[in-house]
Design goal:
By secondary structure, this protein is of the alpha+beta class. Helices cover 16% and strands 32% of the residues.
Length: 487
């Protein structure tokens, strides 16, 4: 059970580059079952031949925590019936029928058209480099997701020389030398303190630095040959009001050291319908500051995070126009627009392009005539040159680089089976050499080569028999050049 102010660790989500390097996509059993219903997508336990116009996606199939395989439930997948504990691995349930973590139950390869696979992944919420996820959150609101109790109280921080005193503040005075004494003084509601043996001094409105000088000056009228130290004890509290589109609007009693951001944390920050970019502090009927939280979040700028005064009103207006930045940027999210913002400026606000971004394709979707339409699609340089203004409800998509590996594969009686990089002019002997040579029991008379040939009628698979013995003897006619995706 979560206690007040306690937060559970946030699961660490893999970055886009981590997913790119891992090369596989993680899907659940239920997602696997839905994908099996797509007629254009097939599944194979081994790497398949790849016809023109299709892609291969390595997948890892997992059972989420808390899911227990049913005794009779079966999932039909890609033309084969598989029990929930198929793929050679059965998982044990723990914690009274609940699993404590995700369980691997299988792996293989999805084969299908790129647009079909990316569309299915996007629909099912599968995060991968093959689909741009538009499951985005409004930027900045997570800053206030933790309870205010998790932050250090503002009355425990040191008091600066510019702190302004007021009724309710405690002052500690220590004197030593020819005169000794320690005094705890309280600023009364008239703004005065009474110093023993020295009288009454008005201190309301003085800064902490001015207070030190005033107390020393007043004490010096009656005594000499002493040293003095002046410090602050308990600080006064004050009432401020947070109104408008706040998550928890109301009146708040806060420390006199509190700033605008402290009060926002106490009120839970703006709600999703409240602005992050024009938070106003009103004092005696005047707006004394307009604070853009994006300056704080994106630049670390707190220059407008002013010290609050009693009876200040913090007003949060409704949220402004919002646009989305999705895909290969460092911080994909929904961003609030302020003033004139270009598409490229909005992408820069989202942290800029990440290393996997394909700079040749930036797409802008916009609502026109009651429907969503693509109004711009070009490369990054043209987008910067044209300075297209971003509008409310725009969806800006930055596509990632496409994995276009040029490979050939070898299996059988070789030292190292697997995939090898293809280069123009590669021959059979080159591939055998990369595979570490033949094993001692290899059949040296003939080897089979499978090749996919693109024709007007569609892709056609050819089987070519290679006289392996002649190849090993150095016969150039038998040592044929390979093509991409030969197997």
């Amino acid at each position: 059970m979560q206690r007040p102010g306690e937060s559970f660790p946030v699961p660490d989500q893999p970055s886009e580059f981590e997913r790119f390097v891992s090369e596989h996509v993680e899907i659940t059993e239920s997602q696997f079952e839905i994908l099996s219903k797509y007629g254009e997508i097939s599944f194979s336990l081994t790497y398949p031949l790849v016809p023109e116009g299709k892609i291969v996606v390595p997948v890892r199939i997992v059972r989420p925590p808390g899911m227990v395989p049913g005794r009779t439930d079966q999932a039909t997948g890609f033309g084969r019936e598989s029990k929930a504990t198929d793929f050679g691995r059965e998982s044990k349930a723990t914690d009274f029928g609940r699993e404590s973590k995700a369980t691997d139950i299988g792996a293989g390869y999805l084969l299908g058209p790129a647009d079909v696979i990316s569309g299915a992944f996007r629909l099912l919420g599968i995060k991968s480099r093959y689909a741009i996820s538009t499951e985005l959150k409004q930027f900045g609101y997570d800053l206030f997701r933790l309870a205010p109790e998790t932050f250090a109280p503002t009355d425990k921080v040191p008091v600066g020389p510019n702190y302004v005193l007021g009724p309710g503040d405690e002052i500690r005075v220590s004197v030593w030398g020819k005169v000794e004494g320690q005094f705890l003084l309280l600023v009364d509601r008239d703004g005065n303190i009474s110093i023993p043996k020295a009288g009454t001094v008005g201190v309301a409105g003085l800064t902490f630095q001015e207070l030190k000088e005033a107390v020393f000056r007043e004490f010096s009228k009656y005594y000499t040959g002493f040293e003095m130290n002046v410090s602050m004890g308990s600080l006064r509290t004050m009432n401020v009001y947070v109104v408008g589109a706040a998550r928890q609007p109301g009146a708040y009693t806060i420390s006199s050291l509190s700033t605008l951001i402290n009060a926002l944390f106490a009120a839970g920050g703006p709600s999703k319908v409240g602005t992050m970019r024009d938070i106003q502090v009103k004092r005696n009927g005047d707006t004394v500051v307009r604070f853009d939280l994006y300056d704080f979040l994106l630049k670390g700028d707190k220059t407008k995070d002013i010290r609050l005064m009693p009876e200040d009103v913090i007003f949060i207006p409704p949220v402004g126009p919002i646009a989305a930045v999705a895909g290969s940027v460092n911080t994909p999210a929904l961003y609030e627009l302020k003033g004139k913002t270009s598409v490229t400026g909005l992408i820069e606000m989202a942290g800029g392009l990440n290393p996997l971004a394909f700079q040749g394709r930036i797409q802008v979707e916009r609502i026109l005539d009651g429907s969503r339409q693509v109004v711009f699609e070009s490369d990054w340089e043209k987008a910067k040159a044209q300075e297209i203004p971003a509008q409310s409800c725009d969806v800006i998509k930055v596509y990632s680089v496409v994995s276009a590996k040029r490979l050939v594969r070898v299996s059988g009686a070789v030292q190292r089976e697997g995939e090898f990089g293809y280069s123009a002019g590669m021959t059979v002997t080159d591939l055998i050499s990369l595979a570490g040579g033949l094993k001692y029991y290899a059949y040296r008379q003939v080897a089979g080569l499978t090749r996919v040939v693109v024709t007007e009628e569609g892709p056609r698979t050819e089987e070519i028999m290679i006289p392996l013995e002649k190849v090993l003897e150095g016969d150039p006619a038998s040592n044929i050049p390979l093509q991409e995706n030969d197997y």
